[in-house]
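Notebook entry, structure prediction.
Reason for the run: the old model in the group folder had no record of what sequence produced it. Starting over properly, with the input documented here first.
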Amino acid sequence: MPFDEAPDRQSIFDAAHGDDYGAYGMQPKSGFDFRYLLATIRANLLMIVAIIAVFVAIGVIKTMLQTPRYTAMTTIQISGATARVLGRDQDEMTPADGEYDAERSLKTQMEVLKSRVLAQRVVQKLKLAGNPQFFKSQEVDSLAPGTSPKVLADIATSLVAGNLGVNLPVDSRVVTLTWTSTDPQMSQLIANTYASEFIQADLQRKFDSSAYARNFIAEQLTETKQRLEDSERALNAYSRQAGLIRTRDALGSGSEKEGGKSGGASVTTSSLLQVNEAANDATARRIVAEGEWRAVASTPPLSTKQVLANATVNELLAQKASMQAELEQERSRHLDDYPTVKAKIDQIAALNKQIQLAADNVRKGIQAEYLAALNTESKLASQVNQLKGATLSEQDQTVQYALLAREADTNREVYDGLLQRYKQLNASAGISLSNIAIVDTAEVPGGPSSPNLVKNLLISLILGMGLAAATVFFKDQFDDSIRVPEDVENKLALSLLGVVPRSEGEDPSEALLDPKSPISEAYNSLRGSLLYSTTEGLPHIMLVTSAQASEGKTTSAIAIANSFARMGKSVLLIDADLRRPSLHKRVGFANERGLSSLLTSHEAISTVSMPSGQEFLTFMPSGPIPPSPTELISTPRMEAILQEAAAAYDVVIIDSPPILGLADAPMLSALVDGVVFIVEADRSRRGSLKTALRRLRAMRPVLLGAVLTKFDPLKAGNRYSEYYGYDYYQYSSEAKAG
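New structure, fully documented this time:
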């Protein structure tokens, strides 16, 4: 925005009342300021170019001094599962790796690839410890004479491991393996050897692991076999000592009839079981026979089914029936005393005797069976009782026998399991396949991989730019110099009221006499900003101050007073610098009476006011320098003087001493309606501005904003010259003459 235009009313209101830019602390403007960045770069351009040039030169020199190195690359695939030549039982199959286990397995393989052990295998395979060409490819030109082979092997191992590169892309099982040296053939040889030795080491680890398992199981087999033999001998010795005869099925697990106890059944127990079973059968037969006999004994002979079922009885009954029929025929023809009739009757009587005899024989047979069953039952019961006593006597002896038998069976089971596992390991030892395979073998590099001039220059450029940016950043952060108008808001957190250009070759006071000079135009723009700096418009009483001396504070106070006087407002300009007053020298008045005179008396301000020669503008010098200016300013008389001046004039402007080191300006800031803070452009302060503002804000004044004085747009850059209208202020000679 050109400074001959008035600022936005809202921003000025905020500046006066502390909304965003107020008296009690303004927040810097947010966002990225490209103009400020470009200005900072332009101001430090030589330093930035120098830093970047140094880094680029270092990169070029380093590139020229480096020996060309060649990188050979081979790729290997690491699968998730290991194939086997011989199948395995289903219960011994290894489950597929989960995602976490697969990732962990890949990381493990990467660590194995980088391990020193694998590097030692490569050194031993290629005999690099005694190969001068290898050490030459690693730029090791000479070794101490008499170096031991172990030291040479350690050096070669370190060189091999140090030049290895391993890269595993994301979501891939194909590993890129690189090796770098100054000899392309050596790089190819070692890269390929690394891949092959990696596979060999993997197979060797698996074989060693299997061999360890076989050796361990073989030792366990020997120990278990010895324990089995000892337990069997102990069992047999105890059986012989106790006189126990056990029926064991090849030292099996035991008899179910003994409740599952190990050791099998004894002869006595087996006999008891057999005799008891026979006794039970005999009892059953005796009961059946007794039932049959009782049924036959209580029933007429020819009424029992056993008699009727007898073949002899049946045949005799049939003959009797036939004979009875013949008798009836004879009686139908003859009398009972007839010889044929008598013969038939005699025959029937004979048959009846035979039938009775046969029936008696059947009954006697049933009785004999019953008596035999009863006798058998009695004998078997007696035998069972005897075997029960023998078995009960044997129980105490079988307790120890059962313990020994169970121990022998357990040892047998362990031995059988170990023997089976040992046979499986022997069958599968050394025939498992590696889950690592070479995808691409390394070729002889066609060109050097380093040094890369473009890469080195790019890195040097980035590092140089980074260091230059950091240097400029820290330099800017620790430097509170105000070089461009944007610094007022960014570094001081104050709104910008105006920018006053530097006067070239003439006194600023003389330049102010020309209403068309750039300085006059700048103060006219400042006047427009002050007209709307508060909600009531122009502040009635304004204090003009700065952090240090010689920043243009007095010149600005005079220019502001003259500017408002030309508008027709009655203005009183007070020189409140009671230590080093300069206003009377600027206007050519004597300093015999002034503000100090009023502070030590009750006179009216008109007694010390002096006309300036310009209409509507009145000056009040500082007066004689008092011994203690701060004590005079802090009295109620100072406030009364300002109230009297405000009642008599439209605008009261106070030219105060600098803030740093003095208490006058902060005390006066609490008595006025607004404070104008003067800042000299491009002046090194090292924190003095922020210190001065902290002291000023401690009194909670109304900070209207800052005025940047002695600003040189050409020094800040052409862009600032055009932006702030510097060229616009350069009137032509005809315009000045007019």
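Summary: Residues 256-428 form one domain.
The old model has been moved to the deprecated folder.
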